[in-house]
Structures are given as structure tokens and as C-alpha cells.
Write a structure and sequence with these properties.
344 residues; alpha/beta; eight-stranded parallel β-barrel
Length: 344
Amino acid sequence: MLRIGPLTLQTPVLLAPMAGHCDLAFRILCRELGGVGLASTDLLNSQALLRGSRRALELAATNDFDQPCGMQLYGNWSDPLPEAAVWATDNGAKLIDINMGCPVDKVAKKHGGSLLLCQVGDTVQLASRIVEAVRKHTNGRVPVTAKIRLGWDPERFVAPQLARDLENVGIAAVTVHGRFTCQMFSGEADWNRIGEVVSAVKGIPIIGNGDITEPHHVPERMRQTGCAGVMIGRGALRTPWIFAQAWHLLRTGEALPEPGFNAKCRAIIRHLELLDLYNPGAPAVDCMRKRISWYGKTMGHCRPLKDGVRLADSTQAMREAVLPWIQPDREHVPTLVSRSPAPL
């Protein structure tokens, strides 16, 4: 288990809030496959939330099958982040996360995301305001966390001091992506520097993030750094079952076998079912057209399957493209974790 303030997570393996990827359907798919301690929404613009933007409300949507749910907010010192955090606690969030690490222009150019790393004093004051607003509104029941990078560039390695200062104003946990902003997603994540952040704080959990693509990376990085948990981002797009594998390895020391081909096909079909429930029509089709290439990376030579999905014009046609690939002679590898009943 992983304790973040008053919140207890059943596993220390978390799904990262990836812009454009962490829709409700995908979060529920990962949860059903098992091992997810916490999943968070896509990045939420504080101003858009409070004015009721349709797109922002879609991104913030959650339900009972998506718990505990974190909501990640972005903005800067002049934005209504405390008010947006209060809104989130009233709309299903069990944890509020402040984005201080996103390097993409649409976030950083508005002085949010990684630009918050450049003015540490002001950023800590902003965090203090958010913590206080959420504490008063929820009577301390909902923790506030932060997701940061190592700094803007190697000359400004601010993460240890920033994490310590955030802890002092009540931030309940800090997730550290092991790259500088100037790297974007290139190069390798520096887990040794994540370890320096772990050493810098007094007691709050530090969660490591970056380049987790295999189940064994989770216990290895936790031992290397002393971090209390691991957050998985892009690695989950091709293997949403990685959380179950990593959690089993942490609990038992035993590695689960790779899911069989049939199990992966069934995961794709389940993903389509969830898209039909929560994002039906053209958005569901567009989503799976993008996702099938990620799934295909783990399925060997299956170009006809991928092409069949990409060329389909409906989720039903996509299912029909996948179903013939499920064959009894491919059942020699154990299936994925069974799912809970579909939320209808």
C-alpha cells in the first residue's frame, strides 16, 4: 500500500496523467486489468473548468469504476487554481495534483507546467494557497500533490529544494519525472537524481516517473532510489496490463508470464467496449485508430489485424477485424486479469 496524506492506495503503481491519452475509458481499462493504485485525469485547465467548458468537463469526467481518481490541474500564479481544486473535490477527485512539469507549449507558454520550476518561491506560495483551500473545503480529507521535473535545465536542478519546500507547505506527495524540461522526452530519465529528491524530503512519499516500460523496472527503481511508488506513463499505452504484472512482482517476487495473443486481442475489444460507453461514435474510432499501433508493438507480425482496425469506420467493424484473430491454439499463455462488470 501507499499512503498519501489521508488517502491509502492499494498499490504503489500509478498511471500517469498523460495529455491526450488518459481518457476515462483507458483509465478504467487499466484498472480492470489490475494493479493500478491511482489513475488521474488528463491535464485540466483551471479557468476552463470553472467556466464549464464542454471539453474540460469531458476530460474531468469520472465515476465509481474510476476510483480513487486524481485530477491534475495546470495554470499559474494568476489563475484560479485554488477554486478549481475545490471544484474537483466536489466532482469526484480523491486527490488533487498540481502540474509543475509539463514541457509542451500549450501549457508552458501560459506560465504553467514546467515554467513553474523557474520561480520556485512563487510556485511554493501558489501550492500553499491550493493546499489551504482544499483543506478547508474537505476538512483535510483530500490530499494535494505535485508533479515536477528535475528542473528547467541541468544548470537549474531545483527538484530537491522544491520538493522540500512543497512538503513544508502541506503538499502530501511529489512525483518526479527524471528529465529536465529542455530534454522534453528525449534521452534517458535520471533516476539517480530522483533518489536525491527522496533524500531531500523529511517524510512525504516521492513517486518516480520516467522510462518505465517493463514490470521489473518498478521494483528495480524503487530499490535504487528509495521512492515510495512508481508512475507509469507512455509504457502503459502498449501494455495496459503492466500494472498487474508490476504489482504481482512487488508482492511475490515472481514474474507473471506475458499475456497471450488472445488475451491482448480481448483487451483491445474491451477497450472498444469502454470507448463505446464513454466516448462513442467518431471519437472512439479515432482513438482506437491511434492506439492500435501501440498494441501491435507487443503482438508480433499482425499487420493485417492493425490494418483492419485502422481502415474500419466503426467500433463494431473494429471488433469484427479483431475477433477472427482469437484462436484456441493461442491460449497456452494465461489470460489477463478478469474484469469487473461493465458500467452501464
